[in-house]
Amino acid sequence: xxxxxxxxxxxxxxxxxxxxxxxxxxxxxxxxxxxxxxxxxxxxxxxxxxxxxxxxxxxxxxxxxxxxxxxxxxxxxxxxxxxxxxxxxxxxxxxxxxxxxxxxxxxxxxxxxxxxxxxxxxxxxxxxxxxxxxxxxxxxxxxxxxxxxxxxxxxxxxxxxxxxxxxxxxxxxxxxxxxxxxxxxxxxxxxxxxxxxxxxxxxxxxxxxx
Amino acid sequence: xxxxxxxxxxxxxxxxxxxxxxxxxxxxxxxxxxxxxxxxxxxxxxxxxxxxxxxxxxxxxxxxxxxxxxxxxxxxxxxxxxxxxxxxxxxxxxxxxxxxxxxxxxxxxxxxxxxxxxxxxxxxxxxxxxxxxxxxxxxxxxxxxxxxxxxxxxxxxxxxxxxxxxxxxxxxxxxxxxxxxxxxxxxxxxxxxxxxxxxxxxxxxxxxxx
DNA sequence: TCCTGTGAAATACTTCACAGCT
DNA sequence: AGCTGTGAAGTATTTCACAGGA
Lengths: 210, 210
Hints:
homodimer; alpha/beta; seven-stranded mixed sheet; DNA-binding
Protein backbone atom coordinates (compact mmCIF):
# COMPACT_ATOMS: atom_id res chain seq x y z
CA UNK A 1 0.00 0.00 0.00
CA UNK A 2 0.86 3.69 0.47
CA UNK A 3 1.90 5.11 -2.88
CA UNK A 4 0.26 8.42 -3.66
CA UNK A 5 -3.48 8.18 -3.33
CA UNK A 6 -5.55 10.35 -5.70
CA UNK A 7 -7.42 13.08 -3.89
CA UNK A 8 -10.74 12.05 -5.48
CA UNK A 9 -10.39 8.71 -3.78
CA UNK A 10 -10.01 10.38 -0.40
CA UNK A 11 -13.17 12.34 -1.09
CA UNK A 12 -15.12 9.14 -1.63
CA UNK A 13 -13.86 7.14 1.34
CA UNK A 14 -16.01 9.00 3.89
CA UNK A 15 -19.00 8.24 1.69
CA UNK A 16 -18.22 4.54 1.86
CA UNK A 17 -17.63 4.85 5.56
CA UNK A 18 -20.99 6.45 6.22
CA UNK A 19 -22.88 3.94 4.10
CA UNK A 20 -21.15 1.02 5.76
CA UNK A 21 -22.06 2.42 9.16
CA UNK A 22 -25.67 2.50 8.01
CA UNK A 23 -25.47 -1.04 6.71
CA UNK A 24 -24.06 -2.16 10.03
CA UNK A 25 -26.99 -0.55 11.84
CA UNK A 26 -29.26 -2.47 9.51
CA UNK A 27 -27.45 -5.65 10.62
CA UNK A 28 -26.08 -6.32 7.17
CA UNK A 29 -22.94 -8.38 7.54
CA UNK A 30 -21.71 -8.66 3.98
CA UNK A 31 -21.93 -6.18 1.14
CA UNK A 32 -20.69 -6.38 -2.44
CA UNK A 33 -19.19 -3.47 -4.38
CA UNK A 34 -22.29 -3.82 -6.53
CA UNK A 35 -24.67 -3.18 -3.64
CA UNK A 36 -22.57 -0.44 -2.11
CA UNK A 37 -22.34 1.22 -5.49
CA UNK A 38 -26.09 1.08 -5.98
CA UNK A 39 -26.63 2.99 -2.75
CA UNK A 40 -24.11 5.66 -3.68
CA UNK A 41 -24.60 5.81 -7.44
CA UNK A 42 -20.96 4.89 -7.91
CA UNK A 43 -19.76 2.06 -10.17
CA UNK A 44 -18.65 -1.15 -8.45
CA UNK A 45 -15.34 -1.05 -10.30
CA UNK A 46 -14.66 2.38 -8.89
CA UNK A 47 -15.26 1.21 -5.35
CA UNK A 48 -13.06 -1.84 -5.75
CA UNK A 49 -10.30 0.24 -7.31
CA UNK A 50 -10.52 2.85 -4.57
CA UNK A 51 -10.25 0.25 -1.84
CA UNK A 52 -7.42 -1.53 -3.63
CA UNK A 53 -5.16 1.48 -3.01
CA UNK A 54 -5.19 0.51 0.64
CA UNK A 55 -5.26 -3.26 0.62
CA UNK A 56 -7.41 -6.30 0.00
CA UNK A 57 -10.47 -6.21 2.18
CA UNK A 58 -12.95 -8.42 0.36
CA UNK A 59 -13.68 -12.06 -0.16
CA UNK A 60 -14.03 -13.30 -3.72
CA UNK A 61 -17.47 -14.64 -4.43
CA UNK A 62 -18.94 -12.94 -1.34
CA UNK A 63 -18.08 -9.30 -0.97
CA UNK A 64 -16.89 -7.23 1.97
CA UNK A 65 -17.50 -7.87 5.64
CA UNK A 66 -19.25 -4.68 6.71
CA UNK A 67 -17.77 -4.39 10.21
CA UNK A 68 -14.32 -5.24 9.07
CA UNK A 69 -14.28 -2.79 6.17
CA UNK A 70 -15.71 -0.16 8.48
CA UNK A 71 -12.79 -0.71 10.84
CA UNK A 72 -10.31 -0.50 8.01
CA UNK A 73 -11.76 2.74 6.72
CA UNK A 74 -11.87 4.16 10.21
CA UNK A 75 -8.17 3.57 10.49
CA UNK A 76 -7.38 4.79 6.98
CA UNK A 77 -9.28 8.03 7.52
CA UNK A 78 -7.86 8.52 10.99
CA UNK A 79 -11.26 8.27 12.64
CA UNK A 80 -10.03 5.89 15.30
CA UNK A 81 -9.14 8.81 17.53
CA UNK A 82 -10.63 12.07 18.74
CA UNK A 83 -10.08 15.30 16.89
CA UNK A 84 -10.12 18.60 18.70
CA UNK A 85 -11.89 21.43 16.97
CA UNK A 86 -12.06 25.18 17.46
CA UNK A 87 -14.97 27.11 16.03
CA UNK A 88 -14.36 30.71 15.07
CA UNK A 89 -17.49 32.79 14.54
CA UNK A 90 -20.57 32.17 16.64
CA UNK A 91 -23.26 33.65 14.44
CA UNK A 92 -26.29 31.72 13.27
CA UNK A 93 -24.22 29.36 11.22
CA UNK A 94 -21.75 28.67 14.00
CA UNK A 95 -24.57 28.03 16.43
CA UNK A 96 -26.32 25.78 13.95
CA UNK A 97 -23.17 23.71 13.69
CA UNK A 98 -22.75 23.48 17.46
CA UNK A 99 -26.37 22.58 17.85
CA UNK A 100 -26.31 20.05 15.05
CA UNK A 101 -24.91 17.32 17.25
CA UNK A 102 -23.53 15.33 14.35
CA UNK A 103 -19.90 16.15 15.00
CA UNK A 104 -19.23 14.64 18.42
CA UNK A 105 -20.53 11.14 17.56
CA UNK A 106 -18.01 11.07 14.73
CA UNK A 107 -15.17 12.03 17.04
CA UNK A 108 -15.03 15.75 16.31
CA UNK A 109 -15.07 17.59 19.61
CA UNK A 110 -15.52 21.33 19.57
CA UNK A 111 -13.45 22.38 22.59
CA UNK A 112 -13.43 26.13 22.14
CA UNK A 113 -15.47 28.81 20.40
CA UNK A 114 -14.39 32.33 19.48
CA UNK A 115 -15.91 35.54 18.26
CA UNK A 116 -14.74 39.09 17.74
CA UNK A 117 -18.00 40.70 18.85
CA UNK A 118 -17.43 42.05 22.42
CA UNK A 119 -21.12 41.56 23.20
CA UNK A 120 -20.83 37.85 22.61
CA UNK A 121 -17.60 37.26 24.51
CA UNK A 122 -18.28 35.59 27.84
CA UNK A 123 -21.64 34.31 26.67
CA UNK A 124 -22.25 30.60 27.09
CA UNK A 125 -23.07 28.32 24.17
CA UNK A 126 -23.91 24.90 25.48
CA UNK A 127 -21.00 23.99 27.73
CA UNK A 128 -18.62 26.49 26.17
CA UNK A 129 -17.90 30.12 26.87
CA UNK A 130 -17.32 32.31 23.85
CA UNK A 131 -13.78 33.65 23.95
CA UNK A 132 -12.19 36.67 22.38
CA UNK A 133 -10.74 35.74 19.02
CA UNK A 134 -7.45 37.20 20.19
CA UNK A 135 -7.09 34.27 22.54
CA UNK A 136 -7.26 31.84 19.66
CA UNK A 137 -3.52 31.22 19.45
CA UNK A 138 -3.13 30.59 23.18
CA UNK A 139 -6.11 28.24 23.40
CA UNK A 140 -5.13 26.28 20.31
CA UNK A 141 -1.73 25.69 21.85
CA UNK A 142 -3.02 24.87 25.36
CA UNK A 143 -5.74 22.52 24.30
CA UNK A 144 -3.94 20.93 21.38
CA UNK A 145 -6.61 21.84 18.85
CA UNK A 146 -6.22 20.05 15.48
CA UNK A 147 -8.89 21.54 13.28
CA UNK A 148 -10.37 25.00 12.82
CA UNK A 149 -13.85 25.75 11.59
CA UNK A 150 -14.25 29.26 10.20
CA UNK A 151 -17.76 30.71 10.25
CA UNK A 152 -17.04 34.44 10.36
CA UNK A 153 -18.10 37.14 7.90
CA UNK A 154 -16.03 37.25 4.71
CA UNK A 155 -14.25 40.45 5.70
CA UNK A 156 -12.67 38.74 8.70
CA UNK A 157 -12.14 35.30 7.26
CA UNK A 158 -8.66 35.64 5.78
CA UNK A 159 -7.35 37.17 9.01
CA UNK A 160 -8.81 34.33 11.04
CA UNK A 161 -7.34 31.80 8.65
CA UNK A 162 -3.93 33.49 8.83
CA UNK A 163 -4.17 33.22 12.59
CA UNK A 164 -5.02 29.52 12.43
CA UNK A 165 -2.10 29.02 10.07
CA UNK A 166 0.26 30.72 12.48
CA UNK A 167 -1.08 28.44 15.24
CA UNK A 168 0.19 25.50 13.17
CA UNK A 169 -3.28 24.20 12.59
CA UNK A 170 -3.14 22.19 9.37
CA UNK A 171 -6.79 21.63 8.56
CA UNK A 172 -9.57 24.16 8.16
CA UNK A 173 -13.22 23.84 7.32
CA UNK A 174 -14.14 27.21 5.87
CA UNK A 175 -17.70 28.47 5.55
CA UNK A 176 -16.77 32.02 4.60
CA UNK A 177 -17.41 32.89 0.96
CA UNK A 178 -13.83 33.72 0.10
CA UNK A 179 -10.94 32.00 -1.66
CA UNK A 180 -8.50 31.61 1.22
CA UNK A 181 -4.79 31.96 0.56
CA UNK A 182 -2.81 29.46 2.61
CA UNK A 183 0.59 27.73 2.58
CA UNK A 184 0.74 24.54 0.56
CA UNK A 185 0.93 22.25 3.58
CA UNK A 186 -2.50 23.40 4.74
CA UNK A 187 -5.74 21.61 3.93
CA UNK A 188 -8.74 23.84 3.50
CA UNK A 189 -12.18 22.56 2.63
CA UNK A 190 -14.54 25.30 1.54
CA UNK A 191 -18.29 25.11 1.92
CA UNK A 192 -20.22 27.81 0.10
CA UNK A 193 -23.90 27.43 -0.75
CA UNK A 194 -23.86 30.28 -3.26
CA UNK A 195 -21.15 28.64 -5.34
CA UNK A 196 -23.08 25.39 -5.14
CA UNK A 197 -26.28 27.07 -6.32
CA UNK A 198 -24.41 28.73 -9.15
CA UNK A 199 -23.24 25.40 -10.50
CA UNK A 200 -26.82 24.17 -10.28
CA UNK A 201 -28.16 27.08 -12.29
CA UNK A 202 -25.70 26.36 -15.06
CA UNK A 203 -27.33 22.99 -15.53
CA UNK A 204 -30.86 24.29 -15.09
CA UNK A 205 -30.27 26.86 -17.76
CA UNK A 206 -29.10 24.26 -20.27
CA UNK A 207 -32.19 22.13 -19.48
CA UNK A 208 -34.59 24.54 -21.15
CA UNK A 209 -32.42 24.77 -24.26
CA UNK A 210 -31.40 21.17 -25.04
CA UNK B 1 -18.89 26.75 -28.55
CA UNK B 2 -21.15 24.30 -26.73
CA UNK B 3 -19.62 20.85 -26.98
CA UNK B 4 -19.70 18.96 -23.72
CA UNK B 5 -18.18 21.00 -20.94
CA UNK B 6 -16.35 19.05 -18.22
CA UNK B 7 -18.10 19.21 -14.88
CA UNK B 8 -14.93 20.37 -13.09
CA UNK B 9 -14.96 23.44 -15.29
CA UNK B 10 -18.50 24.26 -14.22
CA UNK B 11 -17.41 23.96 -10.60
CA UNK B 12 -14.71 26.58 -11.15
CA UNK B 13 -16.74 29.15 -13.06
CA UNK B 14 -18.58 30.46 -9.98
CA UNK B 15 -15.19 30.92 -8.34
CA UNK B 16 -14.07 33.10 -11.25
CA UNK B 17 -17.36 34.92 -11.14
CA UNK B 18 -17.05 35.77 -7.48
CA UNK B 19 -13.47 36.94 -7.79
CA UNK B 20 -14.29 39.10 -10.78
CA UNK B 21 -17.14 40.68 -8.85
CA UNK B 22 -14.66 41.51 -6.11
CA UNK B 23 -12.20 42.94 -8.62
CA UNK B 24 -14.95 45.09 -10.06
CA UNK B 25 -15.75 46.46 -6.62
CA UNK B 26 -12.07 47.29 -6.29
CA UNK B 27 -12.40 49.24 -9.56
CA UNK B 28 -10.01 46.93 -11.38
CA UNK B 29 -10.83 47.12 -15.07
CA UNK B 30 -8.47 44.59 -16.56
CA UNK B 31 -7.22 41.31 -15.14
CA UNK B 32 -4.88 38.69 -16.58
CA UNK B 33 -5.29 34.95 -16.12
CA UNK B 34 -2.07 35.22 -14.15
CA UNK B 35 -3.54 37.63 -11.60
CA UNK B 36 -6.86 35.85 -11.37
CA UNK B 37 -5.02 32.59 -10.86
CA UNK B 38 -2.90 34.05 -8.08
CA UNK B 39 -6.03 35.01 -6.15
CA UNK B 40 -7.57 31.58 -6.53
CA UNK B 41 -4.48 29.37 -6.46
CA UNK B 42 -5.33 28.09 -9.91
CA UNK B 43 -2.89 28.02 -12.82
CA UNK B 44 -3.35 30.70 -15.50
CA UNK B 45 -3.43 28.02 -18.20
CA UNK B 46 -6.33 26.35 -16.45
CA UNK B 47 -8.31 29.55 -16.34
CA UNK B 48 -7.67 30.32 -19.99
CA UNK B 49 -8.59 26.79 -20.99
CA UNK B 50 -11.76 26.85 -18.92
CA UNK B 51 -12.90 30.10 -20.48
CA UNK B 52 -11.99 28.91 -23.96
CA UNK B 53 -14.78 26.33 -23.76
CA UNK B 54 -17.21 29.21 -23.98
CA UNK B 55 -15.53 31.67 -26.29
CA UNK B 56 -12.77 34.24 -26.56
CA UNK B 57 -13.16 36.88 -23.94
CA UNK B 58 -9.67 38.30 -23.55
CA UNK B 59 -7.38 40.68 -25.34
CA UNK B 60 -3.90 39.46 -26.18
CA UNK B 61 -1.20 41.41 -24.44
CA UNK B 62 -3.67 42.84 -21.94
CA UNK B 63 -5.95 40.34 -20.28
CA UNK B 64 -9.67 40.27 -19.62
CA UNK B 65 -11.98 43.21 -19.16
CA UNK B 66 -13.42 42.56 -15.71
CA UNK B 67 -16.94 43.87 -16.33
CA UNK B 68 -17.24 42.17 -19.64
CA UNK B 69 -16.04 38.79 -18.45
CA UNK B 70 -18.34 39.12 -15.47
CA UNK B 71 -21.27 39.64 -17.84
CA UNK B 72 -20.26 36.67 -19.92
CA UNK B 73 -19.99 34.40 -16.89
CA UNK B 74 -23.30 35.67 -15.56
CA UNK B 75 -24.90 34.59 -18.79
CA UNK B 76 -23.04 31.29 -18.99
CA UNK B 77 -24.02 30.35 -15.44
CA UNK B 78 -27.57 31.54 -15.89
CA UNK B 79 -27.23 34.23 -13.25
CA UNK B 80 -28.83 36.89 -15.42
CA UNK B 81 -32.24 35.96 -14.06
CA UNK B 82 -33.93 35.25 -10.77
CA UNK B 83 -34.14 31.76 -9.37
CA UNK B 84 -36.97 30.77 -7.10
CA UNK B 85 -36.06 28.63 -4.14
CA UNK B 86 -38.02 26.57 -1.64
CA UNK B 87 -36.42 25.70 1.68
CA UNK B 88 -37.53 22.50 3.35
CA UNK B 89 -36.61 22.20 7.00
CA UNK B 90 -36.59 25.25 9.23
CA UNK B 91 -34.31 24.10 12.02
CA UNK B 92 -31.20 25.95 13.06
CA UNK B 93 -29.50 25.31 9.77
CA UNK B 94 -32.48 26.41 7.70
CA UNK B 95 -32.82 29.57 9.76
CA UNK B 96 -29.10 30.27 9.48
CA UNK B 97 -29.43 30.07 5.70
CA UNK B 98 -32.45 32.36 5.61
CA UNK B 99 -30.74 34.79 7.91
CA UNK B 100 -27.48 34.69 6.01
CA UNK B 101 -28.65 37.20 3.45
CA UNK B 102 -26.13 36.10 0.86
CA UNK B 103 -28.62 34.36 -1.40
CA UNK B 104 -30.93 37.17 -2.51
CA UNK B 105 -28.15 39.49 -3.76
CA UNK B 106 -27.05 36.67 -6.06
CA UNK B 107 -30.55 36.23 -7.44
CA UNK B 108 -31.65 33.31 -5.30
CA UNK B 109 -35.01 34.15 -3.79
CA UNK B 110 -36.41 31.90 -1.12
CA UNK B 111 -40.15 32.18 -1.76
CA UNK B 112 -41.45 29.45 0.50
CA UNK B 113 -40.35 27.52 3.56
CA UNK B 114 -41.64 24.19 4.82
CA UNK B 115 -41.41 22.00 7.86
CA UNK B 116 -43.09 18.87 9.11
CA UNK B 117 -43.20 19.94 12.76
CA UNK B 118 -46.81 21.01 13.51
CA UNK B 119 -45.54 23.43 16.16
CA UNK B 120 -43.59 25.36 13.58
CA UNK B 121 -46.28 25.50 10.89
CA UNK B 122 -47.83 28.96 10.72
CA UNK B 123 -44.84 30.54 12.42
CA UNK B 124 -43.26 33.47 10.61
CA UNK B 125 -39.62 33.50 9.54
CA UNK B 126 -38.76 36.92 8.21
CA UNK B 127 -41.44 37.62 5.62
CA UNK B 128 -42.40 34.01 5.16
CA UNK B 129 -44.85 31.75 6.92
CA UNK B 130 -43.73 28.19 7.53
CA UNK B 131 -45.98 25.83 5.62
CA UNK B 132 -46.79 22.19 6.10
CA UNK B 133 -44.41 20.09 4.05
CA UNK B 134 -47.47 18.40 2.52
CA UNK B 135 -48.17 21.62 0.66
CA UNK B 136 -44.79 21.48 -1.00
CA UNK B 137 -46.03 20.12 -4.31
CA UNK B 138 -48.84 22.67 -4.63
CA UNK B 139 -46.64 25.63 -3.76
CA UNK B 140 -43.82 24.57 -6.04
CA UNK B 141 -46.30 24.41 -8.89
CA UNK B 142 -48.08 27.67 -8.06
CA UNK B 143 -45.02 29.75 -7.51
CA UNK B 144 -42.84 28.18 -10.18
CA UNK B 145 -40.07 27.21 -7.81
CA UNK B 146 -36.86 26.11 -9.57
CA UNK B 147 -34.57 24.96 -6.79
CA UNK B 148 -35.07 23.07 -3.54
CA UNK B 149 -32.87 23.35 -0.48
CA UNK B 150 -33.14 20.38 1.85
CA UNK B 151 -32.24 21.01 5.49
CA UNK B 152 -34.27 18.33 7.25
CA UNK B 153 -33.06 15.50 9.50
CA UNK B 154 -31.55 12.56 7.62
CA UNK B 155 -34.53 10.31 8.33
CA UNK B 156 -36.84 12.60 6.36
CA UNK B 157 -34.46 13.70 3.67
CA UNK B 158 -34.99 11.04 1.02
CA UNK B 159 -38.78 11.46 1.27
CA UNK B 160 -38.46 15.22 0.85
CA UNK B 161 -36.16 14.74 -2.10
CA UNK B 162 -38.58 12.25 -3.68
CA UNK B 163 -41.26 14.87 -3.29
CA UNK B 164 -39.15 17.55 -4.93
CA UNK B 165 -38.41 15.13 -7.76
CA UNK B 166 -42.09 14.47 -8.30
CA UNK B 167 -42.64 18.25 -8.38
CA UNK B 168 -40.33 18.34 -11.40
CA UNK B 169 -37.72 20.33 -9.57
CA UNK B 170 -34.42 19.59 -11.26
CA UNK B 171 -31.89 21.06 -8.84
CA UNK B 172 -31.43 20.39 -5.15
CA UNK B 173 -28.99 21.68 -2.60
CA UNK B 174 -28.93 18.99 0.05
CA UNK B 175 -27.62 19.53 3.57
CA UNK B 176 -28.86 16.23 4.95
CA UNK B 177 -26.11 13.69 5.62
CA UNK B 178 -27.41 11.05 3.25
CA UNK B 179 -26.60 9.82 -0.25
CA UNK B 180 -29.77 10.79 -2.09
CA UNK B 181 -31.08 8.52 -4.81
CA UNK B 182 -32.47 10.55 -7.69
CA UNK B 183 -33.22 10.15 -11.41
CA UNK B 184 -30.32 10.91 -13.72
CA UNK B 185 -31.75 14.19 -14.99
CA UNK B 186 -31.61 15.67 -11.48
CA UNK B 187 -28.74 17.73 -10.16
CA UNK B 188 -28.03 17.33 -6.48
CA UNK B 189 -25.25 19.15 -4.69
CA UNK B 190 -24.53 17.73 -1.26
CA UNK B 191 -23.06 19.75 1.57
CA UNK B 192 -21.96 17.70 4.55
CA UNK B 193 -19.47 19.02 7.09
CA UNK B 194 -18.79 15.59 8.58
CA UNK B 195 -17.66 14.17 5.24
CA UNK B 196 -15.53 17.26 4.75
CA UNK B 197 -13.90 16.84 8.17
CA UNK B 198 -13.28 13.18 7.45
CA UNK B 199 -11.28 13.99 4.34
CA UNK B 200 -9.31 16.50 6.39
CA UNK B 201 -8.43 13.93 9.05
CA UNK B 202 -7.06 11.59 6.41
CA UNK B 203 -4.48 14.21 5.56
CA UNK B 204 -3.81 15.20 9.15
CA UNK B 205 -3.14 11.60 10.03
CA UNK B 206 -0.55 11.22 7.26
CA UNK B 207 1.15 14.44 8.43
CA UNK B 208 2.48 12.89 11.63
CA UNK B 209 3.85 9.91 9.72
CA UNK B 210 5.61 11.39 6.69
C1' DT C 1 -21.69 -19.22 -9.71
C1' DC C 2 -20.58 -14.95 -7.84
C1' DC C 3 -17.54 -11.49 -6.67
C1' DT C 4 -12.84 -9.49 -5.74
C1' DG C 5 -8.44 -7.39 -7.22
C1' DT C 6 -6.02 -5.59 -10.95
C1' DG C 7 -3.31 -4.78 -15.21
C1' DA C 8 -4.50 -2.70 -19.46
C1' DA C 9 -7.43 0.31 -22.24
C1' DA C 10 -10.11 4.16 -22.49
C1' DT C 11 -11.39 8.60 -21.12
C1' DA C 12 -10.93 12.94 -18.78
C1' DC C 13 -8.35 16.71 -17.25
C1' DT C 14 -4.28 19.65 -16.77
C1' DT C 15 -0.21 21.69 -18.26
C1' DC C 16 2.97 22.97 -21.81
C1' DA C 17 4.58 25.81 -25.16
C1' DC C 18 4.07 28.77 -28.77
C1' DA C 19 1.78 31.33 -32.77
C1' DG C 20 -0.29 35.47 -33.09
C1' DC C 21 -2.39 39.84 -31.62
C1' DT C 22 -1.92 44.42 -28.98
C1' DA D 1 7.00 43.02 -23.81
C1' DG D 2 3.00 40.88 -22.42
C1' DC D 3 -0.89 38.00 -22.64
C1' DT D 4 -4.54 35.17 -24.92
C1' DG D 5 -6.20 30.97 -27.16
C1' DT D 6 -5.15 26.42 -28.30
C1' DG D 7 -3.34 22.05 -30.29
C1' DA D 8 -0.40 18.66 -28.50
C1' DA D 9 1.80 16.35 -24.66
C1' DG D 10 1.54 14.77 -20.32
C1' DT D 11 -1.08 13.14 -16.10
C1' DA D 12 -4.82 11.52 -13.69
C1' DT D 13 -8.87 8.96 -13.22
C1' DT D 14 -12.31 5.75 -14.64
C1' DT D 15 -13.83 1.73 -16.79
C1' DC D 16 -13.07 -2.70 -18.83
C1' DA D 17 -12.50 -7.38 -18.69
C1' DC D 18 -10.83 -11.32 -16.86
C1' DA D 19 -7.88 -14.51 -13.88
C1' DG D 20 -8.55 -16.68 -9.82
C1' DG D 21 -10.49 -17.71 -5.18
C1' DA D 22 -14.73 -19.00 -2.24
